[in-house]
Structure formats: structure tokens, C-alpha cells
């Protein structure tokens, strides 16, 4: 890179970060609507993710709604009407809130039986994000929460295809990426298999989270968001003790 290009990229960098979102202003509290599969969803039989744990970190009047749907793909979430419900929540909230929509899929899209190819997955993610932007809200593309299966001491990466695809969409469409897969992998690898199993929804379910797991991985999400947007500090509560344990890779 030439000196001139470096100087130009430095000058442009703060501008890119400060780019205004049409529906946002400094006075409004944040609202978070969570779109995704069972690894976002409310704890229930056969499902349960980080969503409710994250929502518990919010400071009123900030609020959120967990619309995670067990078994959802980027196709079924739209076809089944969940996405329309998310968009209605967004439309109703943008006057009074800075609205964020988290978009996290992949666990089911990657299963061959669901017939979602990677190119289709990418097109779908871009389309969801664009719907959110067109309503004056901010889409946040999340890479998939890691599963907690180990091969010996090594955490297995079995989401690489959909994680890479999500990263590519975020980069190509200039959508904010929240790399939950990287952050959750780092923590799960650090604590190891036996401690990671304590977050299982039920014994042997290394995909879904129990309530405590939701609080811990919800904290990871909260910290990623706080790190990505300083204005969210007013609306997302902190837990320095828990954040510190996670950052140090110590089981919490
Ligand atoms: C719409 O927004 C109003 C005001 O923020 C709120 O009281 C109401 O519960 C919302 N309705 C729905 C369906 O989200
Ligand atoms: C995937 O395609 C097969 C073969 O066309 C079909 O039987 C199956 O129902 C499809 N599954 C979904 C989830 O659309
Ligand atoms: C994902 O991308 C990484 C880094 O570019 C690469 O090493 C890995 O093989 C990719 N994984 C898949 C499943 O495509
Ligand atoms: C903060 O995290 C610690 C460690 O997990 C937990 O014991 C405590 O209850 C949390 N505090 C709040 C206010 O959530």
C-alpha cells in the first residue's frame, strides 16, 4: 500500500464507523430483536441459546425480544412467518428506539436435509440484513454459536462453512459482523470439554444451552456488542467479574 493510500484509509476509517443509521439518534434507548435458530432461542425442550441471557443484560428502558425459532433455517424463518413478525416489531419500535436486529443462522442451514446451499444461505443473509436497513434499523450478522464437541482436547470446528459464508456476506455488504463463533470457540476451547458440558441443556446436548449457559454466552454477546459500538454502553449492563473470567478463559 502506498503512503497516500494508508493516509487515505486512516482518514476514512472514522467516517465509516460514524456513518449515521437513518432511524437512530443519541436520545433513543436501544431495542434488540433477535432472529435465529435454537441456539438463540428461549430455553425449552430441544432448544435454548444465548438470546435470553443477553436480554437479561439490558438496562431499562432498553429492551429486546427473542424470536429464535428451534430448527429454523434462513429459508424456514421467512416462509414460516417469523421474519414478518420481526419486521413488525422493528416498524413499531423505530420511532422511539434505536433498533438492532441480530441475525444468526447456520446450524440448520448447513444440514443437507434442509436443502440450503451455501450460495443460497449467503443470498438469504444479505436479504435479511437489507430488509432491516430499509426500515432504518441496524442489522448485526452473527456467526454461529460454537457446538461443544471435542476430539481429545481439541474443540471440533463443524460450522466452518456457514461461519465463513456469514463473514463473507458481512464484508461484501458492509454489515456489522459479530463473530460469536470465534469468541465462543475461544472460551469453550479454553475451559475444556468437562466444564463446557456444564452448560448443556440436557446431558449430551452439546449444541443448546441451559439457563446458566445462556447467561454466560449472553455475556459474551453483550461484551462483543459493547466492544463494537460504544454508544451501547448506556443500554447494556456490565458484569466485570464474569467478563474477566471469560476473557481469562476460566470456567464461570
Ligand atoms: C408497539 O410500541 C409501543 C410503544 O413503544 C408498545 O407499547 C407496544 O407494546 C408495541 N407493540 C408491539 C406489538 O410490539
Ligand atoms: C429437501 O429436498 C428433498 C428432495 O427434493 C425433499 O424431499 C425434502 O422435503 C426437502 N426438505 C426441505 C426441508 O425442504
Ligand atoms: C473457512 O475459512 C478458513 C480461513 O480462510 C479456512 O482455513 C477454512 O478451511 C474455511 N472452512 C471451510 C469449511 O470452508
Ligand atoms: C456476575 O457474574 C458472576 C459470575 O458468573 C455471578 O456470580 C453474578 O451473579 C453476576 N452478577 C450479576 C449482577 O449478574
TrEMBL record:
Keywords: Signal. SUPFAM superfamilies: SGNH hydrolase (SSF52266). Residues 35-214 form the SGNH hydrolase-type esterase domain. It comes from Didymosphaeria variabile. This is SGNH hydrolase-type esterase domain-containing protein. GO terms for molecular function: hydrolase activity. Residues 1-18 form the signal peptide.
